[in-house]
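Re: How this chain folds, sequence and tokenised backbone to follow
Notation: Tokens come from a learned vocabulary of local backbone shapes, not from coordinates.
Start of record: The labelled sequence and token lines come straight after this line.
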Amino acid sequence: MGEMNKNMIIWFAVSAVLMLALPWLAVTFVKGDAGMAVCFLLFFAVNPIYCVIAGTFAGKDMRQLWSLPFVSAALFLIGTWIFFDMGETAFILYAAVYLVLGIAAMLISKFIRMKTQR
């Protein structure tokens, strides 16, 4: 198995943990106002930062890793719909913002890489 395939598997596994396991942990083990605080932390800090980092990494090899921002956003949407409220349209907006952040980071990373290689 090639190095890039290993990287894809690792990044997809990290995406699954952050976008599926963390919401499940928040819903299952953190109750009341503390649970709401954890959700805010996930939605407004952890997930956007992860999407930017994943997008930046994907910009290193867009040919192989272009799907990483899409997978992260899709897993977020799946996770929130499963663990919070199925079909809630607000989560679509969050997923769209995460997707835009990931794609923007990927394109900026690719652009910077192209500029520095000249």
Remarks:
- The first helix runs from residue 3 to 29.
